[in-house]
Request: fold
Amino acid sequence: MKAIVSFDMDMTLLDHKTWKIPDSTYRALERLREQYYIVIATGRDMDSKFSIGLKELVGQDATIHLNGNKISVGEQTIFEHSMEPGLVKRMLEFSAGKDFALGITTGTEDYYVNPEYVTIHDMTRFGESERHFKDPAQLLRMPVRSMTYIGKADAIHKLEEAFPEVKLPLFSSREGADVIEKGVSKAEGLKRLCNYYGISIQNTIAFGDSMNDFEIIQEAGLGIAMGNSVDQLKLIADYVTTDIGEDGIWNACQALGLFKTSERK
Reply:
């Protein structure tokens, strides 16, 4: 029976310095397919306009989207969870006029309060911003599984103090955070996939680099932190590999004997 190996997307699979998945990572994925289900576990919705191409490049068996709020096997969605509209409304009202953006991107459309901070973020990182901003009030009539905070890391506490029912794990770039209900995590998503495949959680491996990977690195049978991970993740990981740009995934697979036979990268 196959086991499960899961990967965060940003700065675990996808190197933000090159905006590419390293060649050695592609080779590792192909080797791992022989004996593992390949899973992406990410804060992204991998069906969104910004991620659909990456999903096609990886060719995973299953996906834990939006930090566990949506799970799919192939093209079939097997689990979804949405925030209560009342909570969404209160967070949007609280955030209006603040020095950060809050909202979601779904499909080709973007629903944010204070959208100018999204534009500033895009221009700084990518040199352009091709957004289609819509009225964020429409979110009250839509399924909102998680939200995105775009702003300075030191202002996150404003939302956390006002809404103790949510958590805001920082992006690895520290330029924003996921907004997730407490009790929801990639780890819970992994457990649901274990039930689906009939696999023990001990027969899972998880790679990650940022704070939204904390629970899954703790819960997986083997938790691996990238060399470029935040320090808190390295402290609780079973193994710390090299940076993403230094063949981190390949090196961990070789060092831990995850391939059936050894091979040079």
